[in-house]
Write a structure and sequence with these properties.
Largest sheet: 2 strands, antiparallel
Shape: globular
Number of helices: 5
């Protein structure tokens, strides 16, 4: 069993929708760039799925950012403001 706790206690937040919007990139385009199904990108964006380390690195490379700029245990500024 993995020592990393997942779920509600320690969710993984991401900036995928913001980063895609800034670059005018669709879910399908990001999915193609990292060789996954577009539904996988949707699941990541909703927080229904957490990326493997490999996938997180591939996504970060597409945006030219470090992993920590795309994925985080803490909410990003403005995230969750309803």
């Amino acid at each position: 069993m993995s020592p990393v706790r997942r779920g509600k206690e320690l969710p993984i937040h991401n900036r995928l929708p913001v980063l895609r919007a800034e670059r005018g990139m669709s879910r399908a385009e990001l999915a193609e760039a990292v060789e996954v199904n577009p539904q996988t990108i949707g699941a990541l964006e909703r927080g229904d799925h957490y990326p493997s380390l490999d996938l997180a690195l591939r996504i970060s490379a597409v945006f030219g950012l470090p992993v920590e700029a795309v994925f985080s245990r803490a909410p990003f500024d403005g995230e969750g403001d309803a």
